[in-house]
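Batch job 17 of 40 flagged for manual review because the log was empty.
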Amino acid sequence: MSGHDEDPLTETVELGVELLAHLEDPKLSLKEALDRLETLTTDPAVTREILDTAELRGIIEREDGLIRSTSGQFVSFEADVTSREGEFVCRRCGTSITTGYFIEFDAGEHGPFGSSCIRKVTGRE
């Protein structure tokens, strides 16, 4: 086993931190942030770990029920989102889709999403 093998929990936390680092909106309600994190996990302990890790790393600030992104990064549809044809189920809404959109983060790939859900997850809608 190489040193690059991560357990699924660590990978989920890292993907969640990257998702928060790439928020299009400078401020989100906690509810809106949780809606996006639920595309990775519905486990409250893992969600808390993602939020705590992102805050410890200075990627987000939490105050009065708001999540404020401090990274200034965002997902570029041209560079960071790929699409593939096939039989997929959207990670956000559960709909069957034939074109899956995937966000390419350093920590890994996140998806598939349908055309409207990819826009919601990345904050474009």
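Reviewer: the log was empty due to a logging misconfiguration, but the result itself is present. Strands lie at 27-29, 60-63, 66-69, 81-89, 96-105, 108-113. Unflagging and moving on to job 18.
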